[in-house]
Design a protein that fits this description.
Strand order of the largest sheet: 1-2-4-3-5-6-7-8
Helix content: 25-40%
Strand content: 15-25%
Radius of gyration: 17 Å
Number of domains: 1
CATH topology: Rossmann fold
Largest sheet: 8 strands, mixed
Number of helices: 9
CATH class: Alpha Beta
CATH superfamily: Alpha/Beta hydrolase fold, catalytic domain
Structural class: alpha/beta
Length: 263
């Protein structure tokens, strides 16, 4: 009997300009399916990071097509990162390239990790015409001014790989952390106007984004919203959950997406 061929997705790498002209790189994994999940990485993470590839493979096997982008200043995208000042343009550019009238997909769902989830919320609130079905925010900050990182917590250092340390994002020369945080908008304000289903995921002892951020986002969010808090050790944050407790996280995402944005 001949060996069964391993089925693999069609992989497309593309670029699209943001509204201010910055070139934004993305990758699309196709079955093809009618349903698309967009992965929005956090700061200092690129679209082809191991954790994003793991998520893309998982969702593809569930029946979705998957896209992931490099926000400006990261990976193959141009420009400099501005901690949310312009990154909503990057997200909008990619989803407009892929979803909507005359595009590959009629609609999409979003899985946002850390600041990527907050950026996605801001973009969707600014552009309610975008055909988004559902939003997942994993370890996403509400207010950048309230961030109090605790890298000394047990388990925090193991979440920072050497490849992360040597692959430093390019930062915007005109937008410093001090000036941006002084006028940054809150994710809670953005989700308050979003009537699509929303899942807020937090983890006990998160070394970077305290779970109180997720509680604030969930409390302000328009219905329907679900907040799931993991009682875990290890100070896990965002892609740390993907790396160290993947089955627990994926069971939650699979159940929730099946209910609100099934493939």
């Amino acid at each position: 009997m001949p060996a069964r061929k391993s089925v693999r997705p069609e992989v497309r790498h593309g670029r699209t300009p943001a509204r201010d002209g910055v070139s934004i790189a993305y990758t699309l994994w196709r079955r093809p399916s009618r349903e698309l999940i967009v992965l929005a990485p956090g700061f200092w993470r690129i679209r082809l990071a191991r954790e994003n590839l793991y998520l893309a493979e998982h969702f593809w096997r569930l029946g979705y097509d998957v896209a992931a982008l490099d926000f400006r200043g990261h990976g193959d995208s141009g420009g400099g990162y501005g901690f949310g000042a312009s990154e909503d343009r990057d997200f909008i550019a990619v989803v407009e390239e892929l979803a909507g009238p005359g595009r590959l997909y009629e609609s999409f769902a979003v899985v946002g990790l850390s600041l990527g989830g907050s950026i996605a919320a801001h973009a969707l609130a600014a552009r309610p015409d975008l055909p988004c079905r559902a939003l997942v925010m994993i370890s996403s900050p509400d207010d950048l001014r309230a961030l109090r990182p605790k890298p000394w917590r047990s388990g925090a250092i193991r979440q920072v790989r050497l490849r992360h340390a040597v692959r430093v994002p390019r930062l915007s020369a005109t937008r410093t952390w001090k000036t941006l945080s002084a006028r940054s908008s809150r994710a809670a304000d953005s989700v308050a106007s979003l009537t699509i289903p929303k899942l807020i995921v937090t983890s006990e002892g998160d070394w970077l984004v305290d779970p109180s951020h997720g509680r604030s986002i969930a409390a302000a969010a328009a219905s329907p919203v679900e907040h799931v808090h993991f009682q875990l050790g290890g100070a896990l944050h965002a892609d740390g959950l993907v790396r160290f407790v993947p089955l627990r996280l994926l069971r939650l995402l699979d159940r929730w997406l099946k209910e609100h944005a099934a493939p």
